[in-house]
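Figure 2 data, in text form.
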Amino acid sequence: MLGGFDSHPLPFLSNRHELLGWSTKPIAGPLQLNMLVTPQSQRRNQRIALTAAIMAAVIIGVFAYFRPVVGFLLVLCPVIYWWIRRQTIRRDKVLAQPFPKAWERVLISQVEFFAALDETRRERFRSMVKVFLDETPITGVRTEVDDQTRVLVAASAIIPVFGFDDWEYSRLGEVLIYLGRFDSEYQTDGSADRNTLGMIGVSHLSGVMILSKPDLIAGFSIDSDKRNVGIHEFAHLVDQADGAVDGLPAGIPADVVNPWISWVGQELESESAGGHHIDDYAYTNRAEYLAVLTEYFFESPELLKQKNPAMYAMLKKMYRQDTVGLLSSVKPRRNRRIGRNSPCPCGSGKKYKRCCR
């Protein structure tokens, strides 16, 4: 079980767009936010900050002409300039730092997507990792958060959005790493229902993502298994960027909207027929369908394209990446399966069967 948001049975409606709860209005291009600092974004940020500071000075000066006592508010102008510039300045400093060798080893040895990139795109990936890890708290709950865990969380975040010109997870405040799988009360022990691998929070947990450490690691340890809980949960955040986790991501190309809506509607309606090559969990609701298909797209793209070329083509346009072309250049690694008697990936020192299995 993966999802972490409320879902409700859908009433019968004759219009499939209404059935799926989607708007049919035209959708704009990809949501672009400045995670990486470029000369262009640097100049734009400087212009915005300077313009805001000057406008504040003019407004305060006009009021001060009639009421000199408010003149002291002019000290706020440099504060306004700094407030607008602070994130760009910090990111510029972070990007100037060398990429840690320990992080590089994790990416090379465990992240097939990164290994498939050429050096130019690897450098962009590294930059996105540095910014993400600088700005996103990753906290262990009864478990250690080491370099491997932090880098795999960052890779999970970056892989789905790597095809966008620019992106940041503005709705994400913190990632919690749990010792193992958890139940509906977020407990990792004492319950037979510990079957949740990850979730994005709602209501009082809004802005929080929870991931099971062993399952996060396993998602990158076993190639082509169609499962990666980190990518799954970050796909939900890509979906949520427009304010709703509804299986229709922000910035989906206009020519994909109607085919995607029709396809997902047909798939969910045909659930009872059985015989799907997609994991059954995808048929929980429209949001889970997107998240599970995203796992397939980045974990087993050749299988997805072979089984359904049209579906692959839609996801290729949606994520602006050709994962078949990218990953075909990578020499298959031997799957590092986690056996019952293997050391648990959480680092407890216990056997997997007696720990987080």
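Caption note: The longest strand covers residues 174-178.
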